[in-house]
Amino acid sequence: MRSIQSQTWTDFEAIVVDDGSTDASWDLLLSSGAAADGRFRCVRQQNAGPGAARNAGAKLARGRYLAFLDADDEWEPGHLQRATACLQSSPGCRVYVSAYDTGQYQSLQVNLLQKCIAQSGRWSLEPGLGPVGVKRVVDACQVSCLVMETALFWHYGGFYEKNRSTFGEDIYLVIQVVFGSDIWFELEPLVHFHVEDSELGVKRVGERPIRPHLLEPEPLVAHCPPERRAQLATLFAYYRLLETEKFARKGDWGTITRMRRQYGWPGKVPMAMRLREWKVPVRTLVGGLQRTLNMPSARS
Questions:
Q1: Of residues 125, 55, 122, the one with CA closest to residue 94
Q2: Which residues are within 8 A (CB) of 27 and not within 5 positions of it... i.e. 6 or more apart?
Q3: d(Cα 268, Cα 236) in Å, to the nearest integer?
Q4: How far is 247 from 283, CA to CA, in rounded Å?
């Protein structure tokens, strides 16, 4: 919160949402200097996941733009100033994304924006950009780096919040932004990630659920310009390939077959993807055998 109070752009309201924390976070919030700052509004709700918490804050917002900051991240003092200046200088551009810095954890979560964008400025999705490149842009649009018009945020439905989703709830929104809107990309890192403190970041372990945009793709397709829908379908096929590789390790051929039918490649399959597709049945067989060998015998 100190990084919010340190912003050089001072005409803002900050809505702090406590998403059902079970530690002393709420008491610390109320006793902090931010609680006495008239620009801050503190609300509390039952835990419903990060998407629901962000949406709850957005519903209370009264400004033209929305900016998001997760509890374990920080903004540089000029973040909001730069975002506002860039958006106001480029009519029709309604989304801003800055680069980020992860400090000593840079090798674990690299600054993808600096790897996929050549220079700061207004960007629009190129028709020839393949699924790997599109996914890289999507992954570069981190929540704490995002500033966008409130009206556009709600046009896309906000963050995905069903089933207390903690994986891909932000990507559900970002894919719509990447395909439907121009974005101002700022290559100077104006956001700092403290992934060592993150419960949802690079240290998270365990099986990740299916990405929500593969569970409910209809809104994404509806908001995608018709001339870009084949490109979106190719991206879905690539995400599906990533999911089927995960299910292959579990030997789950039924789910793989179902997902392949739903998210096939809309055109010619790139050779690199074709090779990966061919490996899936082999991995499924190996995964199934490993599970069988690891099962306890009937006598045990």
A1: 122
A2: none
A3: 14
A4: 9
Residue 99 contacts residue 119 (beta carbons within 8 Å): no
- Which residue shows structure tokens 């600054």? 111
Residue identified by tokens 């030997």 is 251
* 77-133: pLDDT as tens digits: 999 999 999 999 999 999 999 999 887 655 545 678 988 999 999 999 999 999 999
Q: What's the CATH fold of domain 63-197?
A: Spore Coat Polysaccharide Biosynthesis Protein SpsA; Chain A (3.90.550)
For the chain, what is the radius of gyration of the CA atoms?
21
Give 275's Cβ-side CA count (13 Å radius).
2
- Region of 164 on the Ramachandran plot (φ > 0 left; ψ -120 to 50 alpha; else beta): left
Predicted TM-score (pTM) of the model is: 0.88
Domains of the chain, residue spans: 63-197, 225-294
User: What token pair was written down for 290?
Assistant: 């490993």
